């Protein structure tokens, strides 16, 4: 029996690779600018779109400069009940909530941010994009352009793609699932999260290449299962990450204090 899911997924990967060739280069160049300047490339998503955030950093093969913005209230830890899916589905559609979370994050002018969201219609991602742009941050949306036929529901009249500076298209179908099953009314096996992760790794690689051309090497996490690599090496990289975060927080402090004063 031939595979049902893999060949459909690889076709979408090939489609997305071709569709985003120019955007990959533009994003990588801007990310390299942020990192070269001592800034950060932030990562944000809600629901399943938190998974690409966690996939980018920290992990083996990634490097210092990425900053995951993970809010446990828009991540599911349970199916039903406290921390369940129904709660986050409501919260990620609630306008202005994300701003309260982001006020405490070291988002600075000159930084970049990747916002993941399949539909691009949830308030959480749109609010984050609008918030970041107001602060001089370059915004990249990783979303499916197939959803652009759907009308915006946000009060701004925007979808995530509309609110971003640049769009990386996952090419995932609106329904997300890609395997039709005879006798079943709906297809199975989702594609958007896997595609978002693959596209994120392409951005990691291209940004590293851009930095290398500028003579810059950032510390890369490597598995201690590799000969010559130890857990201490990982701890050293966490120390470098902490130093960059402390600088970002120090830079952000006046903005945070002004926000708390209501200015």
Keywords:
263 residues; alpha/beta; two-stranded antiparallel sheet; 9 helices
What share of the residues does DSSP label as strand, in percent? 5-15%
- Poorly predicted runs of 5 or more residues: none
The beta-strand count equals 7
Assign the structural class, choosing from mainly alpha, mainly beta, alpha/beta, alpha+beta, or little secondary structure.
Answer: alpha/beta
- Order of helix and strand elements from N to C terminus: HHEHEHHEHEHEEEHH
- The spatial strand order of the largest sheet comes to 2-1-3-4-5
**How much helix, percentage-wise, in residues?**
40-55%
Outline the biggest β-sheet: 5 strands, parallel
Mean pLDDT: 94
Q: First CA to last CA: what distance?
A: 64 Å
Computed over alpha carbons, the radius of gyration is 19 Å
Continuous helix count: 9
Principal-axes geometry comes out as globular
Offer a quick outline of the entry.
This protein is of the alpha/beta class and 263 residues long. It has helices spanning 6-19, 21-36, 50-56, 85-91, 97-102, 123-134, 160-163, 192-213, 231-260, and strands spanning 41-44, 66-69, 112-116, 138-143, 166-169, 177-179, 188-190. The strands form 2 sheets. Strands 2-1-3-4-5 form a 5-stranded parallel beta sheet, with helices on both faces.
Notes on the structure:
The longest helix has 30 residues, at 231-260. The model has no long low-confidence stretch (mean pLDDT 94). The chain has helices at residues 6-19, 21-36, 50-56, 85-91, 97-102, 123-134, 160-163, 192-213, 231-260; strands at 41-44, 66-69, 112-116, 138-143, 166-169, 177-179, 188-190. Strands 2-1-3-4-5 form a 5-stranded parallel β-sheet, with helices on both faces. Helix 2 (21-36) crosses helix 8 and helix 3 (50-56) packs parallel to helix 8. It starts with 5 loop residues before the first helix and ends with a helix. It is an alpha/beta fold. Strand 4 (138-143), helix 7 and strand 5 (166-169) form a beta-alpha-beta unit.
């Amino acid at each position: 029996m031939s595979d049902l899911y893999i060949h459909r997924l690889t076709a979408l990967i090939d489609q997305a690779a071709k569709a985003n060739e120019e955007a990959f280069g533009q994003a990588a160049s801007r990310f390299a600018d942020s990192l070269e300047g001592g800034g950060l490339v932030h990562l944000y998503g809600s629901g399943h779109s938190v998974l690409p955030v966690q996939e980018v950093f920290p992990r083996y093969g990634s490097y210092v400069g990425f900053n995951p913005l993970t809010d446990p209230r828009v991540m599911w830890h349970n199916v039903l009940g406290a921390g369940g899916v129904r709660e986050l589905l409501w919260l990620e559609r609630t306008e202005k909530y994300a701003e309260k979370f982001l006020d405490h994050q070291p988002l600075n002018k000159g930084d970049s941010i990747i916002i993941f969201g399949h539909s691009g219609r949830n308030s959480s991602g749109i609010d984050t994009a609008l918030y970041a742009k107001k602060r001089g941050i370059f915004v990249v949306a990783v979303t499916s352009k197939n959803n652009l036929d759907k009308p915006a529901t946000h009060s701004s009249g925007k979808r995530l793609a509309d609110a971003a500076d640049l769009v990386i298209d996952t090419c995932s179908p609106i329904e997300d699932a890609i395997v039709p099953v005879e006798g079943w009314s709906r297809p199975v096996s989702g594609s958007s999260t896997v595609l978002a992760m693959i596209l994120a790794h392409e951005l990691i690689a291209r940004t590293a290449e851009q930095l290398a051309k500028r003579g810059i090497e950032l510390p890369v996490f490597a598995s201690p299962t590799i000969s010559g690599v130890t857990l201490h090496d990982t701890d050293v990289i966490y120390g470098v990450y902490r130093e960059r975060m402390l600088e970002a927080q120090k830079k952000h402090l006046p903005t945070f204090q002004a926000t708390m004063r209501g200015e």
